[in-house]
Amino acid sequence: MENQPSSQPPQNEREWKLIEKLLGQAQDEQRKSRRWGIFFKALTFIYLFTLLVIVIPGKTGSAVTMAEEHVGIVDVNGVIAPDQDASADLIVTGLTRAFEAENTTAVLLKINSPGGSPVQSNQVYNAIKRLRAEYPDKKVYAAITDVGASGAYFIASAADEIYADPASIVGSIGVIMAGFGLEQAADKLGVERRVLTAGENKDLMDPFSPIQPAHRKHVQTMLDDIHQQFITAVKEGRGDRLQVDSHPELFSGLFWTGERALDLGLIDGLMSPGQVIREVAGQEEMLNYSSSRSPMEEFIRRFGVSIGEGMAAQLGLSASPVIR
Predict the structure, then answer these.
(1) Per-residue DSSP letters for 40-103?
(2) Residue 305's pLDDT band (boundaries 50, 70, 90)?
(3) Which of 2, 182, 200, 273 is most solvent-facing, going by the fewest CB within 10 Å?
(4) CA geometry: angle 173, 145, 63, nearest 5 deg
């Protein structure tokens, strides 16, 4: 028995070879995984880089001047607000580029908006007036598609002429501030509201407290002031074309179809943007000078603090005047 060779060493040798083989395979898999990871990261980088190179110039409205005469188009789409595509900064940037372009013979505001901030609307209105005075040979036309109401109409009224589709929604010359009264809901839920202020009116429009008569009066006065500013701007822009004497409801906040708006003097004709370019401006060529946020800015806006702001606005926790 002592002369018989032991079987233990061969067994250990086979185990070690198996372990080495497994380790080698694991290392191969890791190397393959790293190579694929590098490949996909490089592919993603190339894709994003290409996207930025292609998209950013067009989205930022880079000035491209056509050699032949054309009408410069500037879009007013969506809610007019600082963090939206229809912000005053973006619209005025587009308007300035359109007016400054050497071969633009006219500028067309293509409008599809329900309105928004009175401040933003007024800034665009004033910019149009300034640019019209600076470039007197270039007419400004506004063409309303689906909706040109409230703040959007505020902007349109600065144009030389306004056109709309017969079925467009036009008007809504008024101001609104909305919110919720949640004090009874808090009482039913047994929630105690704790507010500390420095200034007796600092809790004005607090949704968890009953509105005080003095606060209501103050806010109403503020809304009336903004409404009057709106009315003054529209009267200045439209002049004698408005049928105010026979239709005092023009400034009541009502809105009408484009067909009815023509009878009221709110618009000058029933035409599409294309018809305005061809038949009124007398051009066949057009170029869009609209300016908008870059893709990175849009990403930050969508996934940043705007989410919280949107929720607060939906709950009525942050109220500000809106022209609509």
Answers:
(1) HHHHHHHHHHHHHHHHHHHHTT-----SS-EEEEEEEES-BSTTSTT-HHHHHHHHHHHHHSTT
(2) very low
(3) 2
(4) 105
Token pair for 305: 């603090």
Which tokens go with 172? 């809504």
8-43 pLDDT, tens per residue? 444 567 667 677 777 777 777 777 777 777 766 676
Average pLDDT over residues 153-157: 97
Distances (CA, A) of 217 to 202, 211, 214, 257: 15, 10, 5, 33
147 DSSP β-pair partners: 169
DSSP state, residue 307: H
Q: Which helix (H) or strand (E) holds 32?
A: helix 8-59
Q: For residues 195-217, give the mean pLDDT.
A: 82
Contact partners, residue 297, CB within 8 Å, separation at least 6: none
User: φ, ψ for residue 210 (rounded to 5)?
Assistant: -60, 140
Alpha helices in 135-280 (DSSP H): 151-156, 183-189, 213-238, 258-264, 273-275
- pLDDT tens digits for range 250-282: 999 999 999 999 999 999 999 999 999 999 999
| Banded pLDDT at 320 (limits 50, 70, 90) | low
Q: Token pair for residue 228?
A: 């009057």
Cα 98–chain centre separation: 20
Quote the distance between the C-alpha of residue 206 and its chain's center. Answer: 27
Around Cβ 296, how many Cβ atoms within 10 Å? Answer: 10
